Amino acid sequence: MDTSSFGEFIRSYFLWRDPMIVGAVSGAICGFLGVYVVLRRIVFVGAMLSQVSSFGVALAFYLQGFSALSLFQSLIDPFALSLVMTGAAALFFALNREFFRISQEGVIGFGYLLASGIVVIIADRITHEAHDIADILFGSAVVVDPKEVYIVPAVAIVAILIHWIFFKDFIFVSFDPETARLFKYPVRILNTVLLLTVGVVIAVTTRALGALPVFALVVLPALTALFLTEKLNWVFVLAVLIGILSAVLGYYFSFILSLPTGASITTSASLFFLLGVIWQQGRLLSRSKFG
Amino acid sequence: MDSSFLIKLEDVVIGYDKRGLLDSIDLSIQNGQFWGIVGPNGGGKTTLLKTILGLMPPVKGKVQYGKNHPLIFGYVPQRENFDHIFPISVAEFVAMGKYIRIPVGRGIKKEDWKIVTECLEKVEIPHLRNRLFRSLSGGEKQRTLLAHALAGGPDILILDEPTASMDIKGETAIMELIGKIKERDNLTVLMVSHFLNIVARFADHVVMIDKDDEFFSSGTIEEVFSGETLSRVFGLNVTVEQVTDKIRIYAEARGSDKKT
User: Fold this and answer.
1) Facing residue for B87 by CB, picked from A169, A172, A232
2) Cβ contact (<8 Å) for B87 and A178?
3) Which of A141, B83, B135, B179 has a CA positioned 20 to 30 A from the CA of residue B10?
4) Is the CB of residue B184 less than 8 Å from the CB of residue B214?
5) Quick check: B85 and A232 CB within 8 A?
6) What does the pLDDT profile of chain A (291 residues) look like in tens digits?
7) Which CATH architecture has domain A3-281?
8) From start to end of chain A, where are the E strands?
9) Do A232 and B88 touch (CB under 8 A)?
């Protein structure tokens, strides 16, 4: 490693401190929640929700351009609108199976495509904010909004608290919903709360990092952790650690190599995934060789 | 009110989406009995079981539970019901059976893990506690499921095809173990099975159900398992023979004379 680059990086502490904090916290909480997303085989829910979140932000930018809505300017906040829309999408997904009975894949595909299509249309209409929209989609922002340094950790703490209390129950309804129903567990409520925490976390982290890196942080650390360990509690611990490392290393390389931040985080998470695959293949090989 | 029963269905219509599958079912299950539920595929066994368990409301009538209400059900689902992506250990899986007595929001305590150990000993697999559930053989999985069902201290054990895709050795071992636990803990057992001879050997009562033929019969094994009714329900030539104190069932295809 080039020591002068590293020294320069350390000296520029004031520049990367906030994005690094937001990135690391986002990596931790997305890594944690991603374990449920992967185990429940709803990986593309992460993609759909982060895209819906982007749609909320883009819609807010668009609505802010209408003078007729000037009275509601404070209400048309990109963060608030993206939170409401992502929450609504998560709620719809959680309740779909019982009320609408559309296939999960159908809901995910529809939600993702509709949100993506509208974001592109809006980006075409509001050329002056097109750069902001590109940041939201691909996470190329190097700096973060100062309030996100507080919002992202606060949301992460609330999510972790909920998951701390209901950890056993979320695992139970994810693994064996039939028995959970028989035991009179509130399966529908638990599923809804679980997906809402995923939705809210994706909404706030997408606003801070961008849709692409958030999708990567939801999916790849959890998948990597499943390669590395066969103990459920350790899967959560490792997914959090890999999420943090992916975000931190992504920011570091983005800083010293002048790479787009979101793409750099996504690539870091992908490299951890590849290392996980190699580790698992090596373990399988040694098992087959040595019994 | 007659309170000697554990579960009672009186003039109950089972079905889903407000559509009745089978009219007017009467059934009374007493404490300590071993019931089999048999019938052809798609005959309504699962719907009946879910109605009894309270997972599916009856279209008409009411399922009554006896003085032990609320009943604690120990449910042994089919082994294929679980997604192998979950890295759940045998001990963690058995602990989930205890959740019926652990409220939402409360974690697992030390005494719950003690019960897990006891249940693993009851089903003779304490050595497998740290193994992954997905890595077990069919017989080991079935024992784990049984320990899971026992962990909640059930009044009634519900078994869904406990011997499906097992060889004769595994089948005999698991059924003898179930019989032993039933006697020792004075449990009531309700078992859905396709294996008529297993039901005839281990159960003392049986429900035979076929919604397509609008057939429902319940009673002791000897009352329900006659060559005539079995032939009608399964569309085969069935003979029933008494061997010592149990009956044996033999079936042969009717060729073109199949039930329609």
Assistant:
1) A232
2) no
3) B179
4) no
5) no
6) 566 677 887 888 887 888 899 999 999 999 999 999 999 999 999 889 988 988 888 888 888 877 666 666 666 788 888 889 999 999 888 888 777 778 888 889 999 999 999 988 888 887 666 666 666 666 655 667 788 899 999 999 999 999 999 999 999 999 999 899 989 999 999 999 999 999 999 989 988 888 899 999 999 999 999 999 999 999 999 999 999 999 999 999 998 898 988 999 999 999 999 999 999 999 888 877 765
7) Orthogonal Bundle (1.10)
8) none
9) yes
Residues 6+ apart with CB under 8 A from B255: none
**For residue B70, which amino acid is it?**
P
Across chain B, the runs of DSSP E, i.e. the strands, are: 5-16, 19-30, 34-38, 60-65, 73-76, 156-160, 188-192, 205-210, 215-220, 237-243, 246-252
Contact between chains at B102 and A168 (C-beta distance less than 8 A): yes
How many Cα atoms within 13 Å fall on the side-chain side of residue A282?
7
What does the alpha-carbon distance between residue B186 and residue B179 come to, in Å, rounded to a whole number? 10
ipTM of the complex: 0.84
Strands B215-220 and B205-210: antiparallel
A186 and chain B in contact, CB less than 8 A: yes
Q: Which of residues 38-77 of A touch B (CB under 8 A)?
A: 38-39, 41
Q: What DSSP letter does each residue of A55-106 carry, written as one string? A: HHHHHHHHHHT-GGGGGGTTT--HHHHHHHHHHHHHHHHHHHHHHT---HHH
Q: What is the DSSP secondary-structure string of B46-84? A: HHHHHHHHTSS--SEEEEEE-TTPSPPEEEE--GGGS-T
CA distance A16 to A22: 10
Cβ atoms of residues A53 and A85 within 8 Å? yes
